[in-house]
Each structure stands twice: as C-alpha cells, then as structure tokens.
Amino acid sequence: MMFNAPESQKMNTNAAPVAIADPKKVDLPTGFKTVRTPDPEPRPVRVHADDVCVFYGSKQALFDVSIDIPEKAVTAFIGPSGCGKSTFLRCLNRMNDTIEGARVEGKITLDGEDLYDPKLDVVELRARIGMVFQKPNPFPKTIFENVAYGPRIHGLARSKTDLEQIVVESLKKASLFNEVKDRLHEVGTGLSGGQQQRLCIARAIAVSPEVILMDEPCSALDPIATAKIEELIDELRANYTIVIVTHSMQQAARVSQRTAFFHLGILVEEGPTEMMFTSPAEKRTQDYITGRFG
Amino acid sequence: MNSLVVAALLLVLLAVSYQVGLSRSRAVATGSTLKMHSRPNYHGMMVALWCLIPAALILLAWLFFGDNIERSYTLSLLPPEVVNSDPNQLRDVLRRVEQISTGYGVVGDSQPYENAAGQALQEFRLLTFWSIVAAAAAVGIIGLLAMRARIAPRLRARNEFETIIKFLLAVCSGIAILTTVGIVASLLREALRFFTFISPIDFFFGTVWSPRFAATASGDYGQYGLLPLLWGTLMVASIAMMVAIPLGLMSAIYLAEYAPRKVRAVAKPMIEILAGIPSVIYGFFALVTLGPALSALGDMIGVPIRATSALTAGIAMGIMIIPFVSSLSDDIITQVPRAMRDGSLGMGATKSETIKRVILPAALPGIVGAFLLAVSKAFGETMIVVLAAGNAPILRFNPFDATSTVTVSIVNQLTGDTNFASPQSLVAFALGLTLFVMTLGLNVIALYVVRKYREQYE
Ligand SMILES: Nc1ncnc2c1ncn2[C@@H]1O[C@H](COP(=O)(O)OP(=O)(O)OP(=O)(O)O)[C@@H](O)[C@H]1O
Ligand SMILES: [Mg+2]
Q1: Could you tell me the CA-to-CA distances from A211 to A70, A90, A123, A243, A245 in Å, in that order?
Q2: Which tens digits make up the pLDDT trace of B238-256?
Q3: Which residue numbers delimit the ABC transmembrane type-1 domain (chain B) (predicted)?
Q4: CA within 20 to 30 Å of B39's CA: A31, A74, B109, B137, which one?
C-alpha cells in the first residue's frame, strides 16, 4: 500500500523505521520510484539497468531496479543484509545463471548491448565484466597460474613471454607484484588473506575487463589489508568501471563516487556519494547511514 | 540357553546397578547441603560400569581359559594309555567324548571310558557354568556396592565416567589393531613354513604355476611360480580400471556438475544399487552373457576372443567397480567449495574448462585415493575371476585368452581335501601375503599422494 503510488513517496519520509524493517508489513513494492540525484557533471554511462526483477524460485528478491553505472568511477551498493545487493551485482555479469532456480527479468545493457540477449556469449561477457568475491578464492594453483588462468582460457597471450608480461602487469596493477615476485611459482593459497584478495583482483584484471564487480571484497580482511585494497580500488578507477558492494559506510564514503542504497529488494535512492552521506533525500537512507536500522 | 542366561544376567545387573546409583545419588543430594558435582545419571552410569566391567571380565576370562580347563579335565578322566597314544587317535577320542557330552550321540561304537568321560564332562560343564555365572554376579554386586558407597556430593563422577569411556574406546581400537596384527602374523608364519618347502626365489620369480596334488606327493611338489598369477591379476585389474575409471569419473562429473537436481536424485541411487549386487552375480553375468557376446564380437571382427578370458572378467569387474569410483569421486567433487567454481565461471571460463582446470585439480588427491582404493578392490576380487577368467595360470600376454589370478589360485589350493602341512595348501598363505603386501603398498601410496596434494592445496 505504502509503495503503490508514486504520490505516496512523501509519506515514506514519515514512516517509522520499524515498519520498514519488517518485510511483512510492506506491500509488494512494485511501482516504487527510486529517488535519483544526478552527478553535477554527468559521466558517460557504461552499464544501464532497466526494471530488473530477480526471482529465486517463486520468491522475488529484486523489484524493478533501474540504475545507470558511470564509466571510470566507483559505484557503491549499500543496504542491510539480504536486501539484494549481491543478487543485483550477479545480474551484471550473469552469474545468476549458475544458480539453480534463479530468474532475471528486465533489461541490462553494457554500452547499449543487451546482456540477456540469447545470442550473447556469456563466456565472453564475463571476460568483459570481471568479478571479485567476498572471500578470497584463489585457485589451488601457483600465483602465476592463478593470474594466467583467464588469459589462457581466453587465448589472450600469443607466446610464453606475452603471458608472463600479462601476469606481471596484472600483479603490478593489483600492487601485489613486489610482495610476491620471488615466489610466483608457489601456491596462491599460501598467501595472507589480504594478499589473496589482491591476487584475485589481479586475476580479474588479467583479462582486461571493462567493468569490475566486487562483492564485499574487504569483509574478510583486517584494517591494514583493507586500506591497501581501498587504495588499489582508487587507482583502478582511472581505467575501469567499478561496482563495489560494502557493509562499511566509511568504505563507501572513502572509495566511491556514487552510492546506491538498496532495501528489501528495491533500490531506494541513488546519487553522488557525498550527497548521499550528507543530505540524502530519503528518510530511510538517512536512517540506514546513521545506523538507526539495518 | 547358556548365552541367554549370560545376557539376562548382564541386563539385570545393568538395570539394577543403574537404578541403585540413581536413587542413591538423589538420596545423597536431598540429604546434603552441598551442590552435587555430577548429575544423578552419571552416578547411575558409574555404578553400572563398576558393576558390569568386573562381571564381564570374569565371563571373558572363562571364555578364554574355559576350553583349556575343560580339556585338561577330560584328559584326567581318560585312561593314561589313551592319553599317551598318538595325537590323531587322541583327537578322535576327544571328539567322541565331546559329542557324548553334548548329547548329540556318536557314530559307531564308543568305549565305556568314553561314555563315562562324556557324562562327567557334561556335569562338569553345568557346574562350572553356573559357578561362573554366580561368580560374575557376586563380583558385579561387590563392584556395585563399592561404587555406591563412594557416591558423595564432591565425587567427580562425570570426569571419572569420561576416563572410563576413553579407556573402553581405546580397548576397542586396540582389539581391531590386534586382530589385524594377528592375521598378518599368522599369514606370515604359514608363508614362512611354505618357504621351507619352496625357495622364495622359485616362488617370486618362477614363471610356471603347476602345483601337484597333495595325494600324489612323492617329494615332488610341482612348480609354484607366482609370475603368471601376478600377471593375470594385474591384467584383469587394469582392464577393470580401464572400464571403471572413465565411466565412474565421467558419471561422477555429470552427476555432480551437470545433472539437474531431479536427475541426480534418481541416477545417484541407481548407480549405487550396482554396488549392492553380490559379485558372484557379476561373475555369473560375465560367464553367461558377456563372455559369449565378446566372443561373438571377436568372430565378427576376426579376432579370436575366448568367452572366459581376462577381458571378460576385467570388464565385469570394471562394471562392478563403477559405483565405487563414481560415488567416491562424486562426494569429493561436490566438496570442492562453490567459491572455486564461482571464481572460474566469473572469469568467463566455461563449465568444462572449470571442471578440467579448477575442480578436478582441486579434487585430485581425493580422486586418486578413490582410484587406488578401487584398484585394491580389483586385486582382491575373487568370484568374478573364478567364474569368468578361465582359470589358466599360464604366463600369456593376450588379454583375449584365459588367465588366472592370485585370488583364484588361493581358492583352488584351499578347496577340496586339504592338509595344512603340505606346500599345496600352504602356498595359499604365501599368495595371501603377496596380495596383502600389494594392497598395503597401494594404500600407502594413496595416503602419500593425498597428503602431498593436501599440503600443496591448503
Ligand atoms: N541462491 C539463492 N537461492 C534462494 N534465495 C536466495 C539466493 N541467494 C539470495 N537469496 C535471497 O535473495 C535475497 C537477497 O539476497 P542477497 O544475497 O542478494 O543479499 P545481500 O544484500 O547481498 O545480503 P548480504 O549483505 O548479507 O550479502 C535474500 O532474501 C536471500 O535470502
Ligand atoms: Mg551479499
């Protein structure tokens, strides 16, 4: 009822947070309009999502999410646990295809090309949109082989020296090279958690993706390793389009240029990070950011 | 009847002692201002253990020494000239006495002293049985009372119970280990006896297997070359593995990675049913269906294939091992964390690339372990080869021809009239020992491989 009509938006601001946090009291939020604040100087859009709904079996996890993800910037997804951040992130490189019973509706484009076009090659798509996961998941192979994995399967290197160059470059970009240059041929699982996560980033970079998706990349790391990764994300922003899911408000504030706030499967508000953290338009965004629920 | 009495005794002791402990503990608790260290059920269990363990020890002691005591008692009843007569004769007498005492009666006539001894033995047995039962009960009750007297608020019954349980578990694993050691020791002893007849060099490096029958023994025992049997075993096992590994592994990969949940729910139990079919049925199937079919196929393509051959036995054995390989591999593959899959798929790898480059390498140690276990199963399999390999212990390299294996020869040497003093039957122990060493070696290699990869991957 609350979300049925666009006019009801004003009412939302007065709704008590308790009522919002309890999913049973919220009617199906179809028809809800995300509050959007554009950037002061608009950036070119790389990924565009239009009315994306995701179902796990008969359960709907995302409701009509529409968003533009700008190029060469970091977009942060925030929101309470279970609100669908990971689900939406996985839509962007079709990792939801690997989940039995998951179904995606709506339209997502990368540079205007429909990602869910049946003719599209998923394998190639995932090389263009790379992903870094919550828990570092290096393969049980050497550091070198971990990074060389993508270039090998996509045939990116013409020769052995070519491949070596790609691996070294990627490790350098992930600011890991200096720490591992003497042990490229030892197993990647022997690295520390933070190093493993940077290895995973290097692995993702090695296939020169255009977009990098990161699902809580620092949640398993200590503050120092986290700071390193954040620094790295900031550097990578110059060349890549990055989407990061995070539970840390500070992290979102530090690394991202735009922030999107999800709640109960809907995208509530989306805007420049600075504005989202200082003067959000939505009461719920404000409540979440100030830690009043979630 | 006797075992019923013993079981009833133990059950009654258990129930009574537990209840005694329980009620005593409650009584102490209500009569005391101190907080009880352990709950009443622990006191109950302690009393029960203190009661049962001594009683059980008495019964076990009788189990071990009873036979000897009975034997010496019987001997004391027999006239000395019988006792001192030759061992075979004495054995017959003792057997007859035994039969009289159990009331089954004897074939043929029995001597009066045998009848008397039988009667006496029967009475002796009855008497000792009831005294043992009484002794066990008495000791149990003493234990019960002793423990009951110890129950006090500060008694750490919980911790003591833990210690006793730990001890009992250690005893159980000790029994398992001792049994293994015992089996190996007896294998070894008999095998060494065999090597007093035949030199180990002739056995391990001999290329001809033709043991003479014991009946015709005249100093010439025949030839006991192991190599034809070893070769047959290896050939049949390799054929079996050539069937089982690809089929088993592929079906495991399909079930673990590709099959929709519904297919998996049906197919996995179906494959596992194969493991429940007794091996003699596979042998039968090989003999009646597979062998003739292979031989017909051979006629068609112009290769002479015998109906009973290494090939027939190997294929049947391979089919038998498929579920073994597939269900072990399937478990191992599904244990590879989802994060590995996601990592690879997220890089744009296809499913088969992911399986080949990430999942199988990660699962390799476990899979190799499964393979080696399957090989040792193939080495030890008997029934299929007895029926379908043709029993031709000749060193031949043609898998389409009949062959024989170590296990088949063990069966052959031990069936029929056997006299465990001749090399004809003692050779079975040498063969068994060889088989044991082979499987042991495989298991050691399997462990080593698994450990090596585990170190690398964790
Ligand atoms: N594989 C799945 N099968 C069924 N339901 C799922 C599956 N994955 C997620 N869901 C459901 O979809 C909803 C959104 O989940 P999602 O993982 O996207 O949340 P999230 O925002 O990433 O949460 P978190 O911050 O805890 O990671 C949840 O209600 C969850 O239970
Ligand atoms: Mg998540």
Answers
A1: 10, 13, 15, 8, 14
A2: 999 999 999 999 999 999 9
A3: 230-446
A4: B137
In a mutagenesis test of the A interface, which of B347, B450, B453, B457 is the best target, namely the one with the most A β-carbons within 10 Å? Answer: B347
Instruction: Note the pLDDT tens digit of each residue in B53-98.
Output: 999 999 999 988 988 888 888 888 888 887 887 877 888 888 888 8
Say if CB B51 and CB B21 are below 8 A apart.
no
**Residue whose tokens read 């499964």:** B370
Question: A189 contacts in B (CB within 8 Å)?
Answer: 457-458
Cβ atoms < 10 Å from Cβ of A39? 14
Q: What is the C-alpha separation between A192 and B389, in angstroms, rounded?
A: 56
Domain residue spans in chain B? 3-154, 222-457
- Domains detected in chain A: 43-289 (3.40.50.300)
**pLDDT confidence band for A15 (50 / 70 / 90):** very low
> Mean per-residue pLDDT for B296-324?
92
At the fourth CATH level, the homologous superfamily of domain B222-457 is MetI-like (1.10.3720.10)
Cβ neighbours of A153 in B, within 8 Å: 347-349, 353, 357
Is some CB atom of chain A closer than 8 A to the CB atom of B344? Answer: yes
Q: Do A139 and B456 touch (CB under 8 A)?
A: no
